[in-house]
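Please fill in the sequence for the structure shown.

STRUCTURE ENCODING:
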């Protein structure tokens, strides 16, 4: 070859959108830690918000 890609090169292969979506959906099913990570992040954010509320409520000025 003289520095050009051949027509059968897998790097330049064209995949239709439907094939790409099908492959993406099957790859999403194979990933197991996605839901666990999502739950851990949500619990972490809620814990930070509740901790901030608990700590900051003591700094509230009382008018009575």
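FILLED IN BY: designer on duty
SEQUENCE:
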């Amino acid at each position: 070859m003289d520095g050009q890609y051949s027509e059968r090169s897998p790097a330049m292969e064209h995949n239709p959108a439907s094939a790409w979506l099908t492959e993406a959906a099957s790859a999403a099913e194979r990933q197991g830690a996605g839901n666990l990570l999502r739950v851990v992040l949500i619990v972490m954010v809620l814990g930070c918000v509740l901790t901030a509320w608990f700590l900051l409520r003591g700094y509230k000025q009382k008018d009575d």
